[in-house]
Amino acid sequence: MTPRFRIIANGANITPLIKDRLVHLTVKDEAGTTSNTASIILNDQDNRLAFPKKGAEFEIHMGHSGIGMIPMGLFTVETLSISGPPDRLTIKAKSLQTHQTLTENRVDNYNPLTIGELVTTIAARHKLIPNIPPSLASIPSEPLSQNEESDLHLLTRIAKNIGAVVKTTPRHLLFTPKEHAKGAPRETLTPVVIKKKTLSTYKFLFPDIEADRGIMGDSLFGGRATGLLSLAVGNPFVLAETPVILPDMLTEVAELSWVVKSAIHTINGENGKYTTAIDIQTEEAME
Questions:
Q1: Confidence check: pLDDT of 105 > 80
Q2: Which band of pLDDT confidence, cut at 50, 70 and 90, is reported for residue 55?
Q3: Taking the CB of the first residue and of the last residue of the chain, which one, N or C, has fewer CB atoms within 10 A?
């Protein structure tokens, strides 16, 4: 699989300008309120790279030829450094919270469309990934007018009329049935299935073992467990708070409810590889 990436800097696509200079592109996606981070390392042996200003915005997309690219977030430049030899420019950036734009008033009109199309349109506007079940996505909507109304208010207004709720995560815009809202948004995210053969390394830790019935017997533990996974070929859909299914691991591992705590996506421009390192925890450990 050939790695692919796109970087939009202050609205301009700079990918063609830096593609051949890329040493490393890394995005760390974390659960909770911790800011996501990005690192871009570029070859600057000819000393022709211009320094981006602090606060400059970068929109980063990552993926590969077999799965396409998805947006990894909007970031602002925090620090710059140069090193050598060989001469390299390193850009460190922190995620820019886009959720605040959901509450900004706007004026718009929408032709007849489905609820799913509306949610997808609004999610793309705010660089979020839409998540809506087919039962709601297929519902038709009348022409809509948005007059000095925020996108969040518009969606909430529609959701109330059909017994649904609107929620967000750092990466997703969720439109889900009200009866499924308890415990959301984690349970409403589409799980990622990871097969053992796709992993270059894996490790699981069970700290709460309560009883040991012998080497060939059963062990009991309190449900709190952690794991470290390394995907040989990266998957941009592995994002923080996404449920993970491990179907062909040992029963003691496969039967647990795993959630991504953090995911580190790296494209190595020197060896042409895209990998994902995943820190997972059971739902009990995430509480």
A1: yes
A2: confident
A3: C
Residue percentage of the chain with pLDDT more than 70: 86
178 in the same domain as 242: no
Phi, psi of 196 (to 5 degrees): -60, -35
Neighbours of 216 (CB within 10 A): 5
User: What is the model's pLDDT at position 174?
Assistant: 84
55: left (phi over 0), alpha (psi -120 to 50) or beta: left
Bond before 140 cis per omega within 30 degrees: no
Which segment of 17-21, 152-156, 208-212, 263-267 scores lowest on mean pLDDT?
208-212
The whole domain housing 196 covers 192-286
Instruction: Tell me how crowded residue 27 is: count the other CB atoms within 10 A of its CB.
Output: 26
pTM of the predicted protein model:
0.72
Residues 109 and 154 in one domain: yes
Q: Which of 173, 188, 203 corresponds to the end of one domain?
A: 188
Kindly report the CATH number assigned to the domain that includes residue 143: 3.55.50.30
**Type of residue found at 170:** P
pLDDT (0 to 100) of residue 164: 86
Judgement on whether residues 200 and 268 belong to the same structural domain of the protein: yes
Terminal CA-to-CA distance of the chain, rounded, Å?
A: 36
Residues 6+ apart with CB under 8 A from 263: 28, 29, 238, 239, 240, 276, 277, 278, 279
> Domain end: 66, 95, 124, which one?
95
Q: Mean pLDDT over residues 148-166, rounded?
A: 89
Which class for 225: exposed (0-12), middle (13-18), buried (19 or more C-beta within 10 A)?
buried
Partners of 226 in the β-ladder: 205, 281
CB 60 within 8 A of CB 72: yes
